[in-house]
Amino acid sequence: MLQINLLPWRQLRRQRRSRYWLWLFTCVPAVVFTGAVCLAVVMTQETTLLQRHLSALNSGVQQLSRQQIQVAAALSQVNVLRAERLLNRQRVEKSHYYLRLLGLLAAQIPGEVWLTELTEHQGLLTLKGEGHFYHDILAFSETLSTSGLLDEVSLSDVQQMPDRLLHFSMKAQLRLAKSLPDTEGVQ
């Protein structure tokens, strides 16, 4: 009978099996460790990149907030300047109106009538004066009524004084509010 020595085969098989298990126990953890290290490096790089983006965004937000503050300050300054411009325009319109009114009074007042007091309070004009003849005072009142600068002209008081002069008082509503521009329409 033929005898076969199986010892070398067993030994070879045992070596292969031990190599396999050695490879399995060393390579798999090494691959897992290498993968974990690579993953950690990638995550660190990604975290660094995200932190850079976050810092860039934060600096952008800070810059935008500074610009917003500057824009808000500029806008408030523009609003103040608009209000001043509107106020100046109203003053100019009011001055032109008063100039036309004084020109009308100077041109239309009869020779024998004198104004002694001219007051304005909240759009109500009060004219006080003296004259020799009632018809001159009445004509002056009618002239002011038809002038277009005054509304509701009324001769409220005429008194004969001992010095033979007639003292009168007229009241009229100014048309100034109607002639001023609309405050909302001005840009």
Alpha-beta classification: alpha+beta
Number of strands: 4
Q: How many distinct helices?
A: 3
Number of domains: 2
What is the share of helical residues? Answer: 55-70%
Average of pLDDT: 87
How would you explain this protein's 3D organization?
The protein is an alpha+beta fold. The chain has 2 domains: 8-83; 109-179, General secretion pathway protein M, EpsM (Gyrase A, domain 2), CATH 3.30.1360.100. It is built from 3 helices and 4 strands, in the order αββαββα. The model is unreliable at 180-187 (pLDDT under 50).
Tag the structure with descriptive keywords:
187 residues, alpha+beta, Gyrase A, domain 2, four-stranded antiparallel sheet, disordered C terminus
Layout: helices, strands, pairs:
Elements: H1 7-108, E1 113-121, E2 124-131, H2 134-145, E3 150-160, E4 166-174, H3 176-179
Antiparallel strand pairs: 1-2, 2-4, 3-4
Summarize, please.
This protein is of the alpha+beta class and 187 residues long.
